[in-house]
Amino acid sequence: MILCCGEALIDMIPTASTDGSAAFSPHSGGSVFNTAIALGRLGADVGFLSGVSTDKFGQQLCKDLTASNVNTDHLIRSDRLTTLAMVHLTNGSATYSFYDENSAGRMIGPDDLPAIPDSIQALYFGGISLAAEPAADTYAALLKRESGQRLVMLDPNIRPDFISDERRFRARLNGMMALSDIVKTSDEDLAWLEPSADTIVSQARAILAKGPSLVIVTQGAQGATAIMQDGHFTVPAPTTNVVDTVGAGDTFNAGFLAHLDEIKRLSPKSFATSTLAETKSALAFGAQVAAVTVSRAGANPPWREELN
Description:
The chain is an alpha/beta fold. The chain has helices at about 30-40, 55-65, 135-145, 165-180, 185-195, 200-210, 250-260, 270, 275-295; strands spanning about 1-5, 10-15, 20-30, 45-50, 50-55, 70, 75-80, 85-90, 95-100, 120-125, 150-155, 180-185, 215-220, 225-230, 230-235.
């Protein structure tokens, strides 16, 4: 099983009311939640670990996880409120305003963490859960506890406006990247992480030097680049009609992990022996799945049967 660890929230998506005035519609979301949903729809054995409210929005999140075949045994339930993210779309690109103080997801601590059974081969971390304390420290502690025993993939998914203490955030993230096997980042996030480097490859190599064995950089329509100690390569993005980019990176991550699962590379030992061709095919599948998501509104990952 792949266990996705991080935030679940409600995306308030812009829409129009019956009289034509602006309105927002509540959709289940969150970067890590989206990845879990996409994995479930792709047929992977996946679970979700997060703080989730018992309120109506929390009930909606649980219902949607179950509907996409995501195991909910590792949810940490409380009566705190659900995080809300107001989504603002400009030419199809999304920005966010978060309402997250004292939320069910944000307030989980190390003592709330469940035991991780041997059936879980891989852990995935990412999203605003890496910046929102105290949950961010809790996820960092979980990664440190489990690193080396399970394959770890990390997507920083930077939201600068959400980071209250940049120094603390960078220190925590650097520690998590050092213990991860795979770090995936967008080109924009990579430039924020390594502003002193001047090219994508040099920026990615700065991340690689921290400890992971593979850094993946997604570049929208330009495809995805994999950087390893012994070289790098780029996989093109499929041509598609882009409606919006909500959930694109999250879905890419799911496609990549689902393919690793299919080819039996979902453990630290087996991943270390992956061939170049296997890594390329995993990136290509991630790009294929993401292309479907960006072709329709919102974070709506495809089911396996929708893929060619």
